Amino acid sequence: MRSEPFTADVIIAGCGPAGAMLAAELRLHDVRVLVLERESEPAPFVRIVGLHVRSIELLAMRGLLERFLAHGRQRPAAGFFAAIAKPAPAGLDSAHAYLLGISQPVLVRLLEEHAVALGAQVRPGAAVAGLEQDDQGVTVELAGGERLRTRYLVGCDGARSTVRKLLGVGFPGEPARNDTLMGEMAVGASPQEIAARMAAIGETTRRCWIRPVGVGVHSVVVPAAGVGDRAAPPTLEEFRRQLRAVAGTDFGVHSPRWLSRFGDATRLAERYRVGRVLLAGDAAHIHPPIGGQGLNLGVQDAVNLGWKLAAQVRGWAPDPLLDTYQAERRPVAADVLDNTRAQLELMAPEPGPRAVRRLLTELMDFEEVNRHLTEKIVATAVRYDFGAGPDLLGRRLRDIDVRGGRLYDRLHRGRGLVLDRTGRLTAGGWSDRVDHLADPTAALSAPAILLRPDGHVAWIGDDQRDLAEHLARWFGRPGA
């Protein structure tokens, strides 16, 4: 048994969206957190990413949404699946049924600032080089030889995760077969010329488009010549060369804001946990960015894991609780990988995929089909397996009206919540971990529910004894 003092309760490798969000979630429960970020400076390029409905809801649940809205641009929740141009489906079950476009560096900065304000420590320029774990904790070795001690380590260090490799966790799937260039820049061609060229090549090349994203700025996407090193951004000349090869003109592109490339590799970690070491975000799963799901998937991993890992550190977690992280989130990632595979097939230039795409385009005129595919992308359709029960069981609950305001305003502290329309129930001995709101006027089609800190419905009913059993299942022994 080692006797070295713990540097932190949890060390997180990587301060991207998943790592920063996880740090903040842990700090809501007074867990000592150290985030190690291998890069000394933020990325030099500015990539615009999209926050989907479920991620926006999670920000609202933690009281963060307004500051993100101030830095982003709201767009309709439409045209996500294989870039098939259909309007947003009616009746999306959310008070936040839109896409929020935001600069990724700004998003990471806001999440990091939130985590630091809650008490997390962030060390830039600190790269994990080795790890050893035992029954009491994990010893983390940095690239410079420094050794740190922690109760738990979480690898949020991206697709090439050092933590995952050190653990020896397999990362099976398909390697990249195609690369695509993506960037934002000015163009010299007229809107009419761009529209005509895109229409001419649209039936055979789905991976090429030029779209305005601001005054004088266009998003440019074009197939790359081959599979390259995505650690090195492409050059403007490479964009021009590929545009000429695909569209017959380079459209006079100039003055790039950022340039990058992405591949279509698709991989899923065999395990999300090995003892006291866990994986989240791109360290656990990678896939093509079709539909814009990757960053969102990582943020949602963090919110699922944060309260469970905090419970383990604080000593009140039921024995199986931490294992539910993999049990719940790995199937979600597998489903995302499958839908991105399907979308890529629908964007292939061969006659067969083009015929299937035309058929699906017709089917999406049916509201049910359009909504089903959209809900897959925006993650509002996720349902965890909590056993038999009403359809709402295991699903997240939308932000409904409750006494004194909105439901999500009651979830800012990352605690559980009993929403009780009967007025007869209580959180009892779990009141240090679970809040209770008696509200007969709540817009809820159930007598009472138990919400986990991630907003998923863990119980539905009206019996105090049954509620107590489910409180113990998710929140441990009363008074622990």
TrEMBL record:
Q: Does the keyword ATP-binding apply?
A: no
Its required cofactor(s), as named, are: FAD
Q: Which Gene3D superfamilies match?
A: 3.30.70.2450, 3.40.30.120, FAD/NAD(P)-binding domain
| Keyword vocabulary terms for this entry | FAD, Flavoprotein
An MF annotation (GO) of this entry? oxidoreductase activity, acting on paired donors, with incorporation or reduction of molecular oxygen, NAD(P)H as one donor, and incorporation of one atom of oxygen
Q: Which InterPro entries match?
A: FAD-bd, FAD/NAD-bd_sf, RIFMO-like
Domain named FAD-binding is located at: 8-340
Q: Does the keyword Transmembrane helix apply?
A: no
Protein name per the record:
FAD-dependent oxidoreductase
What organism is this sequence from? Actinoplanes nipponensis
